[in-house]
Amino acid sequence: MSHPVILYGATGHAVSVREEIEQILAERDLRIIAYIDDSPHTRPDSIGGVPVIDFETWRRAYRDVPLNVTIGNPAHRRRLVARIEAAGGQFAWLIGTWPSLARDLVAGEGSFIGGGCYVGPGVRLGRHVQLQPLSFIGHDTSIGDFTTICSSRIAGWVEIGSDVFIGMGTSIVHGSAARPLRIGDGAFIAAGSVVTKSVPPGARVMGNPARPLRELARRNGG
Length: 222
Description:
Layout lengths: L2 E6 L3 H13 L5 E7 L9 E2 L2 E4 L1 H7 L5 E3 L4 H13 L19 E2 L4 E2 L4 E2 L4 E2 L4 E2 L4 E2 L4 E2 L4 E2 L3 E2 L3 E3 L4 E2 L4 E2 L8 E3 L4 E2 L4 E2 L8 E3 L4 E2 H7 L3
Parallel strand pairs: 1-2, 1-5, 2-4, 6-9, 7-10, 8-11, 9-12, 10-13, 11-14, 12-15, 13-16, 14-17, 15-18, 16-19, 17-20, 19-21
Antiparallel strand pairs: 3-4, 21-22
């Protein structure tokens, strides 16, 4: 018997998550029955034969169906999760059982791990974490609630806070058991960055090695 799931979001990323569910996660027999889109002027009637509904339609008719919030922006995802919780909704956990995922992986509700990811032993994911396809998460790494990691490589002994956004192609070098490398809550790491030291909460960094955006702007005469 298939298990219905609704995806919150109707962008290309939501469609990609559907592909992951139907192919990479096929053994879980999940079936996407609707997308949610809150934009009445641009919302299509359906995507690939699956209806696109608004939040109120979900609340009235589909509230018992688990959702996964596919929005990449951590702050936006957090707000939507709070809205769903207030309405009495529940969340789908979209993670496969592949040999590239360590057997002791712990992940909070609503989390998503895309295909081709490697997750080492001792990894802990918070609630509503997104690991995009082809991400590499080294051993003894913790990732806080609502964090998004876009196809990046993270070495071992790294502590990543909540509401962090890590852009595609980022590399984060390892810390140590005694001194893990830390990425603070709400940090933003631009695509292609190489992070060689800890990043403070709320910082926005980019480059190789990654530096604060304001520092780079000063160096470039901005």
